[in-house]
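Renewal narrative, Specific Aim 1. Our central claim is that a sequence can be written position by position from structural information alone. The example that follows is taken directly from our test logs and has not been curated for this report. It begins with the structure tokens describing the chain, in the order in which they were read.
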């Protein structure tokens, strides 16, 4: 299980994926969030939970791609699912792992 070195590595990964997806990120923050892994706004602002830094990188990448896709696809429909599959392969396994962690911490 590979962990994130620090916030800078996480932010660099966000910027890498944003570049690949041609998404303009206006502001990027990693902060305490009590009931979400991340959030994004139509203005181009992204917020990620500080707790992601303690999890496996693959789970962080899932959250990063998930949020970035919402800039172009606002729901979790067929297009969103297809894009998740294109970027991460079997993303549903990651989603299940993340959900199990979320249930444990609540």
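The sequence written for that structure reads:
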């Amino acid at each position: 299980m590979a962990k994130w070195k620090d916030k800078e590595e996480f932010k660099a990964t966000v910027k890498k994926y944003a570049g690949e997806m041609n998404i303009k990120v206006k502001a990027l923050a990693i902060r305490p969030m009590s009931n979400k892994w991340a959030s994004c706004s139509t203005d181009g602002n992204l917020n990620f939970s500080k707790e992601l830094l303690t999890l496996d990188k693959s789970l962080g990448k899932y959250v990063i791609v998930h949020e970035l896709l919402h800039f172009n696809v606002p729901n979790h429909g067929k297009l969103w699912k297809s894009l998740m599959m294109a970027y991460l392969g079997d993303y549903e396994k990651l989603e299940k792992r993340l959900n199990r962690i979320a249930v444990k911490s609540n």
